[in-house]
């Protein structure tokens, strides 16, 4: 998302609007990408992102193929470069890649003639997640510019946070981040966001609260004393929402650790737009795959 | 047999020579330096318009032999050195097997005399297998020809082992070379911690991972009186710590590498692993600090940390790629850029490539004293050339300077009176006969 302009982001979001309605039809399919091959290259375990992409591709009538491998295959076996060359030889139109290493999608994009969609690279970026989050915010609030967005949790290790911070700032939203000191990025100023030590400061007057998943698999040494302590100081519960605007919405990229970063009351409550995010995800990914398959690689 | 190099601007920082005059070589040694030398019966080398320096010395080179000949060999590594103007290199011990025994040292020296085209000074391991636990046979290593000891690439994590190594090495008069990195703090990082790593989300190494061990080793050198050389320093904080040690008169020297005074972590935004090395590329502030430390003489050594790798070890995701860049054939040109840009005086640059490294490891050479082996480089300070790693003598191409235009390069390299490199070509098979 770091490279996208406001116009480009709007182009993706506007295009997604057109695809949203397809999910409501009895026959949820358009022939837009008939005869095009899309390969989902997933080097990291993923259920929701992969399924979301696959549904998006099938609704566009693309031939979707899934390739699942381990990121560590480079250590004993085929390199990423060789994998890509092999897939390339089968002439796909679009490659969707999820990988545990930051920059993996850049690496692949520089070495293939297919269009490449980054479905998450290490701790770096997760652009389609940011687009679907923005899409959801715009649907709920009617705009993005001027919104106050609080992102709470493991910012430093989160590609979702990184892509959202870039995209939200580009679109003119105000962004505050908060989390334990071990989970805050060392230089928040590069994103143009306000870094808060106290949750209350981040939530103050927020239009949108985005809770991030505590990613146990990305935690290093001594980052968090306990889930309970996290829930006490950084978890989003009913009292958190007393500080926000009354019509504040709550988002979460999933999967949720209920009772840790967010309480069940909130997840299942009226402020939650978590399932709308999932719904938006398919439309946004249809737009992204459609635009990239059409050769519009801007 | 007498050879006279005529008309060169001779710059010999240690002996205070900085003038256009002639240099006579007899029997492989420097026989005279001055104007109006007797040319009768001498072979003349016209070096008008060129500079003449003592042969360059690189105290930090990975020749990869024995064990990793697919990356580089003593033959190719020393050819790269000669082409870069180096007449001597110190070979790091992280070979396979590790150079932690006299037999490996002797193997390297044997290979070097048969296949090498410049002098090779083996550096032994501090600990057995460079595992950081038990001391290697440092006395035996020194006796076999090792000029220093280091566990380069594997920092000695235990302060007690490092302290013991310094106490022990002192008895044999050899330098302890430290790769300063607190591995626990570095926590598997792959680039410098800063604004760029924040943007990229790559696991990062804080400058303090280097600096805390620099501080530790300076303290231990002070305590033990050992001769300490700090390898590949890259941060502002390290420069300040080294300055303190030098001001205090400790027996401590430090080196930096051309990539640290030429490139910054901004390059990593490309995710190209050609910019991956350890220590990592730092910030612009660090770069400026490294340059001033060279100008002031706080850092007295430029070393390349020449680290050749095969293509498929570098053409990977950034996190998975090997650390290291090659540097022998670009070091002089990059160092001279600091002179051309008016940042570091020519004399300081030449000292950091000759007398500085010689002093750091107690090596012969690095100056043109009468009677010294005639290790010499002739340099065209103004020749512009484009860095093309595919044309290098080195086996490897992991060079982050590819495509850059550099000004200044070695045109002739002479080891012990024998021309080993001239006009872009290696001219000998080995330097077996060169004067020691």
Protein model, in words:
The complex is a heterodimer of chains A (298) and B (436). With 298 residues, chain A is an alpha/beta fold. Chain A has 2 domains: 6-126 and 278-293, 3-Layer(aba) Sandwich (Rossmann fold), CATH 3.40.50.1370; 127-277, Rossmann fold (3-Layer(aba) Sandwich), CATH 3.40.50.1370. In chain A, 36% of the residues lie in helices and 15% in strands. Chain A is built from 10 helices and 9 strands. Chain A has helices at 6-20, 48-59, 80-88, 104-109, 127-141, 159-170, 199-203, 227-234, 264-267, 274-293, and strands at 37-42, 63-68, 94-99, 115-121, 148-152, 174-178, 194-196, 208-211, 249-251. A 5-stranded parallel sheet of chain A has the order 7-6-5-8-9. In chain A, strands 2-1-3-4 form a 4-stranded parallel sheet. In chain A, helix 6 (159-170) links the parallel strand 5 and strand 6 (174-178). In chain A, helix 2 packs across helix 10 and helix 5 (127-141) crosses helix 10. The radius of gyration of chain A is 19 Å and the shape is globular. Chain A starts with 5 loop residues before the first helix and ends in a 5-residue tail after the last helix. Chain B is of the alpha/beta class and 436 residues long. Chain B has a single domain (55-361), classed as Alpha-Beta Barrel (TIM Barrel). Helices cover 30% and strands 24% of the residues of chain B. Chain B is built from 14 helices and 19 strands. Chain B has helices spanning 74-83, 102-115, 138-144, 159-170, 183-186, 195-200, 207-224, 236-247, 258-262, 284-296, 311-314, 331-340, 346-353, 355-361, and strands spanning 2-12, 17-26, 29-34, 43-46, 51-54, 56-61, 86-91, 119-124, 148-150, 175-178, 191-192, 204-205, 228-230, 252-256, 301-302, 376-386, 405-415, 418-422, 425-426. In chain B, strand 11 (191-192), helix 6 and strand 12 (204-205) form a beta-alpha-beta unit. The longest helix of chain B is centred in the middle third of the chain and has 18 residues, at 207-224. Chain B is globular, with a radius of gyration of 20 Å. Classes of the chains: A alpha/beta (298), B alpha/beta (436). At the A-B interface, helix 4 of A face helix 6 of B.
């Amino acid at each position: 998302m770091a490279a996208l302009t406001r116009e480009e982001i709007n182009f993706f979001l506007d295009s997604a609007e057109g695809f949203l309605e397809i999910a409501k039809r009895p026959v949820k399919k358009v022939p837009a990408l008939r005869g095009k091959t899309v390969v989902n290259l997933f080097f990291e375990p993923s259920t929701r992102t992969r399924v979301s992409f696959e549904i998006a591709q099938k609704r566009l009538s693309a031939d979707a193929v899934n390739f699942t491998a381990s990121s560590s295959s480079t250590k004993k076996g085929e390199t990423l470069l060789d994998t890509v060359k092999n897939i390339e030889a089968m002439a796909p139109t679009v490659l969707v890649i999820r990988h545990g290493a930051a920059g993996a999608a850049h690496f692949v994009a520089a070495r293939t003639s297919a269009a490449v969609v980054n479905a998450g690279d290490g701790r770096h970026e997760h652009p389609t997640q940011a687009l679907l989050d923005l899409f959801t915010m715009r649907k709920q609030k009617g705009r993005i510019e001027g919104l106050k967005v609080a992102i709470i949790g493991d910012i430093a290790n989160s590609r979702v946070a990184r892509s959202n911070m870039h995209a939200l700032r580009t679109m003119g939203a105000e962004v505050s981040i908060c989390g334990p000191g071990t989970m805050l990025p060392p230089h928040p100023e590069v994103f143009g966001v306000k870094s808060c030590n106290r949750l209350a400061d981040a939530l103050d007057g927020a239009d949108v609260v985005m809770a991030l998943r505590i990613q146990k698999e990305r935690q290093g040494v001594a980052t968090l004393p306990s889930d309970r302590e996290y829930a006490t100081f950084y978890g989003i519960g009913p009292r958190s929402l007393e500080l926000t605007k009354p019509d504040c919405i709550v988002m979460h990229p999933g999967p949720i650790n209920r009772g840790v970063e967010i309480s069940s009351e909130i997840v299942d409550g009226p402020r939650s737009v978590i399932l709308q995010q999932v719904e938006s995800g398919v439309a946004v990914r249809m737009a992204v795959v459609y635009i990239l398959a059409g050769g519009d690689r801007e | 047999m007498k050879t006279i190099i005529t008309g060169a601007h001779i710059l010999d920082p240690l002996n205070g020579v900085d003038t256009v005059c002639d240099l006579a070589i007899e029997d492989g040694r420097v026989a005279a330096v001055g104007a109006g030398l007797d040319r009768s019966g001498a072979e003349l080398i016209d070096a008008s318009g060129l500079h003449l320096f003592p042969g360059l010395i690189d105290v930090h080179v990975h020749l990869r032999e024995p064990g990793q000949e697919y990356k580089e060999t003593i033959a190719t590594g020393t050819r790269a050195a000669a082409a870069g103007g180096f007449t001597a290199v110190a070979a790091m011990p992280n070979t396979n097997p590790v150079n932690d025994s006299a037999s490996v040292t002797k193997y390297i020296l044997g290979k070097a005399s048969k296949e090498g085209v410049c002098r090779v000074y083996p550096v032994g391991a501090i600990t057995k297998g460079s595992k950081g636990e038990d001391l290697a046979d440092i006395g035996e290593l020194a006796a076999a020809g090792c000029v220093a000891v280091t566990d380069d690439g594997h920092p000695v994590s235990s302060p007690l082992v490092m302290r013991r190594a310094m106490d022990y090495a002192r008895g044999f008069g050899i330098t302890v070379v430290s790769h300063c990195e607190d591995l626990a703090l570095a926590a598997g990082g792959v680039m410098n911690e800063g604004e760029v790593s924040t943007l990229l989300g790559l696991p990062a190494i804080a400058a303090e991972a280097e600096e805390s061990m620099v501080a530790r080793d300076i303290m231990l050198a002070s305590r033990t009186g050992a001769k300490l050389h700090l390898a590949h320093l890259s941060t502002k904080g390290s420069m300040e710590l080294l300055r303190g040690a030098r001001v205090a008169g400790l027996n401590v020297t430090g080196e930096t590498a051309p990539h640290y005074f030429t490139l910054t972590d901004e390059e990593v935004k490309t995710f190209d692993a050609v910019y991956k090395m350890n220590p990592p590329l730092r910030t612009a502030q660090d770069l400026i600090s490294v340059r001033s430390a060279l100008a002031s003489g706080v850092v007295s050594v430029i070393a390349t940390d020449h680290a050749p790798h095969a293509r498929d070890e570098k053409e990977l995701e950034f996190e998975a790629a090997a650390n290291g860049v090659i540097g022998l054939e670009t070091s002089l040109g990059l160092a001279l850029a600091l002179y051309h840009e008016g940042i570091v005086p020519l004399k300081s640059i030449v000292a950091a490539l000759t007398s500085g490294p010689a002093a750091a490891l107690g090596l012969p050479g690095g100056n043109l004293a009468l009677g010294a082996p005639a290790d010499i480089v002739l340099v065209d300070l103004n020749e512009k050339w484009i860095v093309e790693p595919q044309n290098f003598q080195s086996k490897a191409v992991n060079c982050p300077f590819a495509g850059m235009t550099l000004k200044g390069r070695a045109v002739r390299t002479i080891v012990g009176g024998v021309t080993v490199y001239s006009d872009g070509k290696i001219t000998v098979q080995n330097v077996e006969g060169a004067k020691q």
